[in-house]
Structure formats: C-alpha cells, structure tokens
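Page 42, continued from yesterday. The earlier attempt failed because a stray header line got pasted into the input along with the sequence. Redoing it now with the clean sequence only.
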Amino acid sequence: MVDLPQSDDHPNSAPAAPVAGSAIIPPKPAARAARVSLWRYLRLFRADLLSAQPAKLYRAWMAEFRTPFFRSFLVNQPDLVRTVLKDRPEVFPKSNRIGEGLRPLLGNSVFLTNGEVWKRQRRIIDPAFEGGRLRQIYPAIHAAAEAAVTRLSDQVHEIPDAPIEIEAETSHAAADVIFRTLFSIPIEHHMAQEVFHRFRAYQQAQPILNLAAFVPLPRWVPRFHRPATRRNAARIRGLIRDLTQQRMEAIASGHAPDDLATKIMTTQDPETGELFTTDEMVDQVAIFFLAGHETSASALAWALYLVALAPEWQEKIAKEAAGLSLDQFAEAGRLRISRDVFREALRLYPPVPMMVREASCPQQFRGRTLPQGAQVVLSPWHLHRHERLWENPDGFDPGRWQTENGKTCQREAYIPFSAGPRVCTGAGFAMIEGPLILSMILQRFRVEPVAGQEPIPVAHLTVRSQNGIWLRLIPR
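This time it went through. Structure tokens are written below.
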C-alpha cells in the first residue's frame, strides 16, 4: 500500500484534539507492517481484512495499492467519498470483484447488480420499506425483542453468573426479527432454525473477498470456494426457495399475511409491470438476510460490549427505557440515548468495513489519474476512525453526536449504511431494531465484561469478534 501525497489544506483536515483522562478505548486490531509482499498481504487478508491494512490509512486522504492485475485506491477524503457515492454513482458502479466471494449465496441480488437490472430491483423493493411500513411491522420487531430477553432470562436463571457469548444471542434475535417481518414466522420454525444455523456456518467460513477478487479470472474458470461454503449456500438458497414458493401459493389463494415478503412479491415494476420471479425473489431474500441479520447482530453485540465497559451509559439507557411503553412504535422513537449508543457502535465497528466501486472511465482524484477499471475502496472502518476528522477517534463516546464535531462528521464521514442511491433500504429498520433490543435487554439486566475475554475484531462477512463476545448478565 503506497500513500499518495497528502495535503493539510483540505477543509476538513484540522487534526482532531486528543482526549485525555478516562476515555474508554475499546479493542482495535493491530495494523500490519507498512510494506509486505502481495502474497503476504493475500494471506493476511484471508485471515482478517482489518489487521491486513497499514496504520497510515487512519490518516491518509487517499492511498494506492498496486498489484500485477489491477490498481486500487482507498479513499477517505469526505468530498471524494461523496463524489463516488452521491454525486456520480453511475460513474462508479459496484465492483464485480465483490460478487466473486458472495455470489454462491446472493446470486444476482440487488447487493451485487448494477445499471438497469439494479434500478429495476430497487423499484420493486423500495416500496416495502417506505411510508408507514415500519410502523406496520414494528409489533413483529418488538415480539422478537421480547423473545430475546426471555431466552436470556432463562439462561441466567438456569446458570446464574455464567458468562454468555452475546454474539450468538444477538444473531438469534436479529434472525428472529428477519423471519417475523419477512415471512411472519418466528425463529423457532424448523425452516427458520436451519437457515439460521447454516448462515452462521457460512459467515464464519466466507470472507468478503476471495482470491478471484484479486486475480481477474475468465467466467469459465471455476471459482475457488470451499466445499462447505458451496454446500451451505446451496442449502440456504434451497430453504429460501421453499419459503418463497409457499408464499407464492398463499398469495395466489388470497391467504398471504401482509408482511414484507408479500409486499415485495406483489409489487409490480412501475415501468414494466413485471413482478419478481421465484429465482429473483430467492436472490433478494438472501441479501435481506445478510443485510438485515448479519449487520444488525454485529452492531448489537458490539453495542452491548461497549456499554459493559461504560456502566454509566447502560444505566442511562435503562433509565430512559423505564419511562417508555416500548410496545408502541411512537415510544420507540424516543430512545435517544440508546440510539446514540447504537450509532457509536456502528461508528467503531461498522458491520460492513469496506465497499468497493469501479471507475468506469478515467477520473482525477487529488491530482492523480484513476484509470478505467481502477478499484475504488471506501472504508467505513478507516473513515469512522480517521484521525484528521474525528475527536477521540478510537474512543467510545456516545455523547459525541451532540457536539459540533460529531454532527459534522455524521454528515460527512459516517457511512455505516453506505450513502446515495445505493444506501441500504433497511437503514431505518436497523435504527429502530437495534436501539429497541439494546434498551429491552438493559432494562432487564446489567452487563459486565468477562476478565480475560477481551474481544478481537475481525472481518469476514461482517465485523465480528474472533472468539465471540463474552458478557456476564446480572438481573436488575
């Protein structure tokens, strides 16, 4: 990785003031050595995307990475991030290299497509998340949150004081939300159970990018996916296909519940009048599960760990929740403290740590030419911790969102759900679900870290802990 020339005359380049005293600095992966060989980098990358990167990326506005096969530019400068995501997104379509690792599961989903195919998919999907739909599905989200608290209560009652691996619990809760809101079935349903367990195995084995993301291969060359990865992806897609076909039959008979799956499957493309086919719907459900389950589970687990390090914040959340009727949608919107904590967890541990776009024609960035085909990497992980933008960039400080620096950075340097036309359709969904479950858990329990079990962040499909996140829950 080679840093390009840096300039301190950028409008956002004033160094952040260091924060002294008792600031809580949660775990952060150690950066690699400044220079390594390509093959050493590939090995590091395969093990963990985060620790494979050099420390200078936390200060660089832009850096270049050269391989024998392509040129890649990591971009941190806020106005250039805005150019890629908001101002000229059609010039920077999603890179096909991302799809090399995810296509066995996601097929031709909206997460991977570009151009007219992507536009058609969004025209059909977006109405399901607009207007009053979030209010309609809120009871299902609340029911899943209640079920999660009950499961935790049963565990604590059965073995008091025993550490709990909280990532497994937040994964369970987030999967329950997806199944209840998408297909009106709880996680206890046998098909939901199998999808959940298969998906956990898939995410633990599959990195965001595989070898084909670095070495361009003709389409006819077999992709080097692990056998277990292929098997799990095929089984997950088979189960999703069964659920989709059952729903199509229910829609045809007039007995389908009014949930997200029904809404999407009955929405016609306003330009062509077409509906999704079964194959297309399987692709979309797969990404809904990835985006709505994996990302929410990751952020919620880290949020619980962060407040375990900061007892005063969990007490604030518990007190706030105690005064609200959280079974009411309007009341959930008043979880301001919980939302700030969840937002801070998304800053420090963005579930999707890097996004890759491709320059469709030559571009000029910071006096350098990005050639056609160059890979443009946008890294929420580095942008959210950028030393020239954020005050106390590595510290846990939910109060930052009420400061001028925090408000400015939220507008210009905060992209946990991406931004622009390709912003995650479920962003509003996540910002209701995460704070709600966080509040309901902390309303019932105090959480404490477990000595000797500090989590180590690693990135595969999402940012998780290498050996789980262990907490002790104490009933209030």
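Notes: The mean pLDDT is 87.
Reminder to self: strip header lines before submitting.
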